[in-house]
Amino acid sequence: MDVRDYLRAVRRSWWLVLLAVMVSLGVATLVTVQTKPRYVASVTYFVTVPNQGVSEAYQGGIFMQQRVKSYTDLLKSDRLAQSVVAKNPLGLTAEEVQARIGASTVPDTVLLRGTVTDTDATRALRLTEAVSAQFVELVKAVETPPEGRTAPIKVEVISGPRVSSVPVSPKPPFNLSVGGLAGLLVGIGLAVLRTRFDNRLRDAVGLQRATGSPLLGEIPFDPAARTAPLIVGDAASSPRAEAVRKLRTNLRFVDVHEPARVIAVTSALQGEGKTTLSCNLAIALAEAGWRVALVDADLRRPKLAEYLNLEASVGLTDVLLGDVSVGDVVQRWGDKSLLVLPAGSIPPNPSELLGSKAMADLLLVLRESADIVVIDTAPLRTVTDGVVVAVQADGALVVSRYGRTDRGQIAAAAQALQSVSVRMLGCVLNMAKLGRAETDQYESYRIDVPPAPAAAPAERTGPPAAATSSGFFGQERAADPTQELTRLRR
User: Fold this and answer.
1) Where along the sequence do coiled-coil regions lie (predicted)?
2) pLDDT of 337-369, one tens digit each?
3) What is the pTM of this model?
4) Is 408 helix (H, G, I), strand (E, B) or coil?
């Protein structure tokens, strides 16, 4: 991962980073509130050699610097703590006194600094006074020769004892800063780990690798699609509509020598937008002048008639059962060369119906009447209906929703198609997130058009699209599709 990948990971999981920072700040605040204030009293000693001549000053200075280092351990020794407790009872044991004492040297000097840390400022000061007095006596006793001569080293108090009026801990600004920084680092780490272990599809490259087929389009996410899923009216000039038109172009040139006329649109899971894409793709193809037949072959959860505002009581199921003729139930949508065959009633055996000879015969009739047949099928990972329909089509278009389907699911769906030798036309990444540059580019080429009313089914008198010698679409055809269907069933 490079820097841009890390930035994308943080931007994608910004809520996780924010949560980690908030939790860390909360913990830092709790620790700060519950920590008792601690005060520090200090005293500074000066270590020297009395009666030292000038010629011996240099060697004496080096000797004293080395000697002072050993006094830091002496200041924190058991002997000094026991002496302090014996002569200055403060309600503390020798171990407690020893734990409160600290010592340090000033580099390149003969100064020794002693500190006492306590939750009571008064007790810290009194303990420091006792320590400073007893330490001077202890050094004198340790350094005095046995012959009774004068001690060669002298320790004097030159500063203190004094106690700070402000507690040295806790430090709210410091604690909160450290807590916030720690939370930020933890949040970034979690965001990166989430990205590394997140198996959901979030880019076109991953989708192509999972399906083993070319990417034919990226349909951008459009909040307005929830209430207005079709690319008509104001949505006809949206980035989503332009992306569908680009998909239309790419789909028509997948293989110019063997173009796909019957296209099965499917997905790995439910809710990936395959039905909406089927409708919009059919509309875009009809806008380009193609005669399009749109079939709802998702016989378990049909939605196509609802999206297109069509009559849904009879449709594909009734045709396959032989109850009605396809010419009696196919419906023209709007003023475009688009015919729609809804799903009809939900049968108890969708897979058997879709794999029947009647379905194959119906597709032959539709192929004769239309230039392109778009079939909305069931999800591949849920039921086998989609595979059954895709086998009878010229190819399958696999739709995957951004951030919803993982690579394993889409790969298994593609494998289900490939295992029965279904021609993979390509894949589509639906509801993709566009960058600001891509959005601006769409807006710069956008053409404002007068709003048009949403298309609705044409009024009919008698059979909705009765088959005549001119075919479903009104153009001259080779044969009557309804009669052709009847002939093939015999």
Assistant:
1) none
2) 899 999 998 999 899 999 999 999 999 999 998
3) 0.64
4) helix
